[in-house]
Design brief:
The complex is a heterodimer. Chain A is an all-alpha fold. Helix content of chain A is about 70%, strand content about 5%. Chain A folds into three domains: about 190 residues, no CATH class; about 80 residues, no CATH class; about 55 residues. Chain B has a single domain, classed as Orthogonal Bundle (Arp2/3 complex 21 kDa subunit ARPC3). The chains are: A mainly alpha, B mainly alpha.
């Protein structure tokens, strides 16, 4: 199993690359890679998303092609013309507009697939562990919320059953009131007990300290510098480099505040997860693909307008996109070396 | 204390300005740079704006949790987020009409009762938690968190500006919502029902293909841009968002009074203090 940080990087790499790759050939490669990774890594029933990437694509791509084809009347290859009296739809329906819509749908499908896989293979507990130390309180709130979700769902079921015994039937939205208010009250009662337990264990002794004034001022300064850089990007296009530098400085100042805040929070790990060579291989693959998506932007882009042309294909760029395949290869190799492991995982 | 409040106010204003500018960035993008690299811009801008919105959320989170979140706030926030997330799970399991969502009314009412800071945290964490449990983590999440957070934050401010006779000002008084208060809150819910769609749409609209009268183009000017966006919004999203806005009004009218009463009662119970003997 890969480190959740590596999975996050993998999903972000797909996002960045798919946003750049409007060439449908590269888009198809990315989708195939995502489907292979999904099929090999997210095999358990509980990991399956309600809507698989393939089903999503079968809906998103034709819909996007249809919408764009009917509403964008631009392009040289006219297929047919809709009467002008039809609002929005009236005008020429072109092959280029349909293809452009389909490519947009493909990009959306690739992004959806990558995050579906990320959601499926990364346990929620591991996601919480990714929370930086600076957001200690936020992490605690998130942990409590996620812990209470199953309890709240059980309470909801119990309250519905109890109200049903009393003859209450949910026919409309208004009928939810006798269910929602007891649900809220029981949840708040639980939070009362939890707060008392937390105070008794000394939680407030640490958390009641406010943020130092200097750190707060540094955060405000970082935001001000970031905003200044952002305004320079918008209104001083001739000074893009300086603007980028100012924005980077603002981001750095905010980063320093995050680091300083995190430093004051002690953090212990019961059983630290070890970085493995599998993580390294996946990391290197992601860096390779990111390098390709940053340096080969021209090659990755494609526009069918004004006249449809065949998209170009550079095998080296295509090969670079295969840097996202290592999670699938690693899973296949580990299954072959130790087939009992996957069975144990399924049973667990 | 005044300096701290001033800096805190500046942080709110700056994060709001960065977030709003990130959304409306393409409207101001200079025509010259657009003409030079419109394709490159259309690829970079969504990622850049997502990063800026995420930075805004991070900065405001640091500021808000830096104001000493105690165990009671953490516990009540966690549980309320869980309850609201379960409501969103219901929304995913049983699709509601249009953009109707049961999560905004609890966020607004909680922000109103417990204050803007609590409302912001409630909004961002509800969207984050529900995204985690429904598998909805994606590049759209920072935008959703930003918008829902600001809905909760402004709900807290509403108490100060709507002339609610100070009912909610004291921790020891019950927050009885009258007809006027309920009307103001309902209008606020209606407004945020539409604003949520308007703000989140702007994120992708400048980069989406569409008819010329509804699409953004480089260098068309702010007025023309707003006009085109208004047409785009009216054609593609208004009906959808009206269900959300009307749903918020309905839920606030139905849930507002009992929910505010319950939350106020618990706010008073949560008012216990632990003092050391030293």
């Amino acid at each position: 199993m890969l480190d959740p940080r590596v999975w996050l990087l993998w999903a972000l790499t797909v996002l960045v690359t798919a946003s750049s790759a409007r060439n449908p050939l590269y888009g198809a490669i990315l989708l195939l890679v995502a489907m292979v990774v999904g099929a090999t890594c997210a095999t358990e029933d509980r990991q399956r998303a309600p809507l698989s990437p393939l089903h999503f694509g079968m809906i998103a791509i034709p819909l996007s092609a249809l919408f764009n084809g009917l509403t964008v009347h631009f392009g040289d290859t006219r297929l047919f013309t809709l009467p002008d009296w039809l609002p929005l739809l009236g005008g020429a329906v072109t092959l280029e507009a349909i293809i452009f819509g389909a490519v947009n749908g493909l990009t959306l499908t690739v992004i959806f697939s990558s995050f579906s896989i990320f959601n499926a293979v990364t346990p929620v507990r591991d996601l919480i562990k990714l929370t930086p130390r600076a957001f200690h309180e936020a992490g605690v709130v998130l942990s409590i919320a996620l812990t209470f979700v199953p309890q709240t769902a059980r309470s909801l079921r119990s309250i519905r059953e109890a109200q049903a015994v009393r003859g209450h039937r949910v026919r409309g939205l208004r009928d939810w009131l006798p269910i929602v208010i007891p649900l809220l009250t029981s949840g708040l009662e639980r939070s009362m007990g939890l707060a008392e337990a937390m105070v008794a264990r000394g939680y407030g002794a640490v958390s009641d300290r406010g943020q130092p004034l200097r750190r707060q001022a540094l955060l405000a300064l970082g935001l001000l510098v970031l905003l200044t850089g952002w305004l320079m990007v918008l209104f001083r296009p001739s000074r893009q480099l300086i603007a980028a530098g100012v924005m980077a400085l603002g981001t750095l100042l905010i980063g320093i505040v995050v680091w300083l805040t995190g430093r004051s929070v002690s953090h212990t790990v019961y059983r630290a997860r070890r970085w493995s060579h599998r993580d390294t291989v996946t990391l290197v693959g992601c860096i390779l693909t990111l390098a390709v998506s940053v340096t080969q932007r021209e090659a990755l882009y494609y526009s069918p307008y004004p006249r449809l042309t065949a998209p170009s294909f550079n095998p080296l760029v295509g090969l670079g996109l295969l840097g996202l395949i290592p999670p699938a290869l690693i899973e296949m190799i580990s299954d072959r070396d130790d087939p009992g492991m996957s069975k144990e995982r399924t049973l667990a | 204390m005044t300096v701290r409040r001033l800096i805190g106010g500046a942080i709110y204003a700056l994060t709001a300005a960065i977030g709003v500018l990130a959304f409306i960035y393409p409207f101001f993008a200079p025509a010259a740079s657009q003409a030079a690299g419109v394709y490159a811009h259309s690829q970079d801008a969504p990622l850049l704006t997502a990063a800026l919105v995420a930075l805004s959320v991070v900065a405001l989170l640091i500021e808000l949790q830096g104001q000493a979140i105690n165990a009671k706030t953490v516990a009540i926030l966690g549980v309320l987020v869980a309850v609201t997330s379960v409501l969103r799970f219901l929304e995913v399991a049983f699709p509601m009409p249009g953009g109707f969502s049961p999560i905004f009314a609890p966020i607004i009412i909680s922000g109103y009762v417990f204050g803007g800071r609590f409302g912001y945290l409630m909004g961002t964490f509800t969207l984050l938690t529900s995204a985690l449990i429904t598998g909805g983590v994606g590049p759209w999440l920072p935008y959703q968190m930003f918008t829902a957070g600001w809905a909760g934050l402004t709900a807290g401010w509403l108490k100060n500006i709507s002339g609610l006779k100070g009912h909610g000002a004291s921790h020891h008084k019950s927050l009885e919502l009258g007809a006027w208060d309920l009307g103001v809150l309902s209008f606020f819910g209606f407004l945020w029902g539409l604003l949520y769609g308007i703000i989140v749409n702007v994120y992708f609209w400048p980069f989406a293909a569409g008819p010329a009268s509804q699409s953004w183009a480089p260098g068309i000017g702010l007025r023309e841009t707003l006009g085109r966006y208004a047409v785009f919004y009216a054609v593609t999203s208004l009906t959808w968002d009206l269900f959300r806005a009307a749903g918020n009004v309905f839920l606030i009218l139905v849930l507002g009074v009992p929910m505010a009463k319950t939350l106020t009662r618990f706010r008073q119970r949560f008012n216990f203090q632990v003092r050391s003997h030293a």
